[in-house]
Amino acid sequence: MPTFAIVGGTGLIGFYISKVILQEGHALRLVSRGKTESNAAKIEALEALGATSVYCSMTDVPALTDAFAGCDVAISIIHGTAAVIGEREGFLLDAAIAAKVGRFLPCEFGCNTAAMPEGSGLLFDEKKKFQRRMLELGVPFTLIFPGLIMDYSLPNLREYEVITTYGELDCKFPVTHCDDIGRVTVRAALDPRCVNKGVQIAANWICQRDFLPLLEKYYPGHTFETRHVDAATVLQLAEHGDLVEPHEQPERERHQINRACYVWALVVAKDPHADTLDAQELFPDISFIGVDEIISDPEFVFGKGKVPPAFQK
Fold first, then answer.
1. pLDDT tens track for 116-130
2. Which H/E stretch holds residue 292?
């Protein structure tokens, strides 16, 4: 039975990956700094499904090495900012090497950074630097590129107070449900075809111009408050936005992501990329959750307990 270790296993994507690991019958070690008010319920839920918790500092390489010892796969889903990845993910890699982990999955889970040109953004450049380090050290790795995450990129009032769009409304990009990210991640992590490769998930394509028609289709008569940040503003903030609180994704870094996704269309490789495999071709038996299926769920759009009476099921 393969054994996985995951750092960040109670975050949005990490929790789904953790559940899939356990559902597939694999062993799981949740590696974290310990229980907090925000993660305790998820840790306990995963432990109830069979996960084992290991608590240690995320900068203590010997302790992390012990946590990863005997694991086939180590997955990093730490807070995705350039500063955090640059300062902290190296400790996880060093521990994975010392523990002789079979495969390392770094904190990607977004745009295809392997195919991006240098200078596309602080976060993307930091991820590319980390990819080069893994290659130089000879660490077997797999990069997961799901495009944008449905929870954040599809229009909803659970995470936001208004529906906000950015840049060019007709710029198309792929979106993926976290459950599908989990299924592809677990399969790819154990698949020899995916060693030192990226895995692109691009089953659902959409553009921001589709947002309001989709909402009107399923919630006729409801008025959604919207605002648009035009391309010129995105480009300006991507170059000159503030860099305050680098560990919490500063303004400049956020808009560099918006620039890549909604202006430059860099979410996936523009041309076939030799080191990127297609998830649908790799795993044709996976049926991916579609955009309409998600938008038609009023709890996704409005949030639990906040669905207007007219749309309650």
1. 999 999 999 999 999
2. helix 291-295
